[in-house]
Fold each of these.
Amino acid sequence: MTEVGSGARVSGMPRVRRVPGWVAPTLPTFAWVEHGLLWCYVQRGKSPEVHGAQCALAWVGGVHSTAPATGDVAAPSQWRAMGELIVCGAVSRGEPYPDHEWWREAGIAQLDSVERQRWWAQWSSYGWTTAIAEGAGLALSWAMGFSDDAPPVLPRHLEDGSRATPELRQECAAIMREALTRSLPARSGLGAPSRPDHTSAST
């Protein structure tokens, strides 16, 4: 891959092959964003925000079986994605574990468990976890059409806890913009949307 200013590029092919009908971006856009986020995470400093965003899109796109914040293994329905978005917001803000009424009002009461309460108490105060939740929430907002930012997230922190430099953020943005100029070849089976009316969905 070359550097910014000389044609930043992403290699490989997206792993996402279909998206649910409630996803706002088109399949090519969604697939390349997930792939570009993974590329930036692996190649450019392992940012927790980028990691959270990539994991969220991989879950929605059927690549990962577990939800990014709750670890739930249920399929990513629109209702479940909204639940994840709510949880990501709470964790990213460092809020304490919500009481049962909070989960009930959010429509995800069945996700309230002793195991999840223990996980939240142990990990939600860590900067890495809150940064992952921030990235996942931004990506879910983009996937559901609440935000039209593309890319939905850029690195703010790196694996060692340092701040991402403006130059790194610009480089990752250039990598993502390059990825979004690509289409998915029909021969791979990636070119067809999961629903006939989904080809016209806007970003």
Amino acid sequence: MGETTPEQRPEDLGSSAGGPGHIGVTNAVVGLFGVAVTVGGLWLAERRADTTVTEVLAGLTVGLGVLAVAAAVFGAVRALTSRPRAASTVMAAGLSVLGLVLGAVTGLVAAYDEPGTPGHPQANVQLAGNPGNWTLTIQVGTPGMTPGDVMDAQVFGSDGGSSEFSLGRSLTHADGSGFATTTLVTTQVNDEGVRLAVLVPGKDCSQLMPLLNATRIVALSCKAK
């Protein structure tokens, strides 16, 4: 009968596959992978995270990448200073893979939510005062724009004929969520009302607003340009 060998513990399996050098190289590779995940998460947070969901996902991606790097460094140091074990390496690899998956999900969500063609502008119209002394307030909002794009809103009055003149104009940049809003106020209002014109990328929108129906929310009619 041969001599029995001592039973190996699960945490010692990594040491039988290779020495400290082998474990150190593996941790270095996994650590670099974790760094890549961290950098990718930071890029997503800076460039693509325009909603709360994508911000949270990008933040989790960065956190997992940092934890993966920390676990890989801990495993490498442990391999050099004591008996090498694979537990830290496995943890770092798992965190890196999970971070990569979250990063991919973040990119897909950001791509799905990325603004395309702007939605139809809407106007909240309010009329105050009395005949001969009207004050017309028009709040215009356009969703679905690309952050930074310009919404050009202008109010026109009429002299009763075919000619128009400008009563006010506003150029507004869309915010980080792709929404642009502005408020136009005029006191130069006659009984025929005004015409609101809104230009956004790809759309030319216009709507007549008579005084009799001034207090309402109006969806402007648009055509492609």
